[in-house]
Amino acid sequence: MANVTVIGAQWGDEGKGKLVDWLSNRADVVVRFQGGHNAGHTLVVGDQTYKLSLLPSGVVQGKLSIIGNGVVVDPWHLLSEIEKLGAQGVNIGPELLVLADNACLILPWHRDLDQAREAAATNKIGTTGRGIGPAYEDKVGRRAIRVADLADREALEAKIDRLLAHHGPLRRGLGLPEADGAALMAELTEMAPKILPFAKPAWLMLDEVVKAGRRVLFEGAQGALLDVDHGTYPYVTSSNTVAGQAAAGSGLGPKGTGYVLGIVKAYTTRVGGGPFPTELFDEVGQHLGTVGREFGVVTGRARRCGWFDAALVRQSVALNGIHGIALTKLDVVDGLKTLKICTGYQLDGEEIGYLPAGLKAQAALTPVYEEMEGWSETTQGARSWRDLPANAVKYVRRIEELIGAPVALLSTSPQRDDTILMRDPFQD
């Protein structure tokens, strides 16, 4: 398994950024394959902190980085992120970054629509308001503007006309100003020369890379429980976040995705609305949020916190074909006298071991807990299994048993090197 696919196995925010950055040392190419700039990855390298939303994490280490066709791209945000990293000493040019020429663009109209819909909704989903959902709608509606279209004025004009026919009535219905096709054309024409140098057939590059025996790291965004098909619908993102999307969202093909590594926190968090069976509203929940610094990279919103939910992660293991997990933020539960793990749920007098699809059923779940003794020692910065307290080892081993997957990596702080390796995912 020369390639590795990294996905979040909960509701996102599991610490994928650090692990992808750490694994980039073993990779030649890093690929983003879904989502948009609604994702947030924080990389801590020494005394420098990098916050990425759209760029693959490999750019920080100078690895060839590809934004695949499964990503919806706000070109103005992409340029601003490139500029921001340049100010931090990371210079990004076409030799380092490749943008799939068949990726679809997020336009200002998408952002307007996203924000207006959320403001008007009674039951808010918790969207970031960055236009990701409406951009995916236009993609499947076959009216999206793709990166390659920026080089073809005639194609752009025809596509803007088609977009106007769709967005005009929507904007009027939501009380938004009329869409200005000429203004959008001018904006795209001005921006195109800055974006097009990065545009290439990503699928072809990946095919050549794999045939040359180079290692590819596929970097997922959000988490499996936010998948538009398999997550807590409708409180999900607008893309497929499961490991299978790495193939479709990059063009490499299913056999190329390799070892699937699920990133899992030692507890559970979620941003925005939707079901959360193990959510805590007491001092333990406050402890997890404060010590874990649980605030969204993109939105700044406080994350909801709760006990580790083994039933949910077990579901993610099955949906993603996870070979092993990377367990993060173990140090955040240091000092808690008692730890609880959710092993399943009570629903209408019966015990079930998975999250049902229906909203009413999800809301009616009562978690079934197993209690374990905590530890007073610190795990922060541990770089060896021997450095962990005995009860921390028991906690990790019990998680492995309950989710049906081994821990391949254990992260004990945001620092890149504070990682215990049990199994190298890139091992052939």
From TrEMBL:
Keywords: Cytoplasm, GTP-binding, Ligase, Magnesium, Metal-binding, Nucleotide-binding, Purine biosynthesis
Main location, first listed in the record: cytoplasm
Protein origin, superkingdom: Bacteria
Keyword ATP-binding: no
Binding-site residues, IMP: 13-16, 38-41, 128, 142, 222, 237, 301
Positions with a binding annotation for Mg(2+): 13, 40
Compartmental location: Cytoplasm
Cofactor mode of binding and number, as noted: Binds 1 Mg(2+) ion per subunit.
GO BP terms: 'de novo' AMP biosynthetic process; IMP metabolic process
Subunit structure, as described in the record: Homodimer.
HAMAP family: Adenylosucc_synth
Family: Belongs to the adenylosuccinate synthetase family.
PANTHER family per the UniProt record, alphabetical: ADENYLOSUCCINATE SYNTHETASE
Protein name as catalogued: Adenylosuccinate synthetase
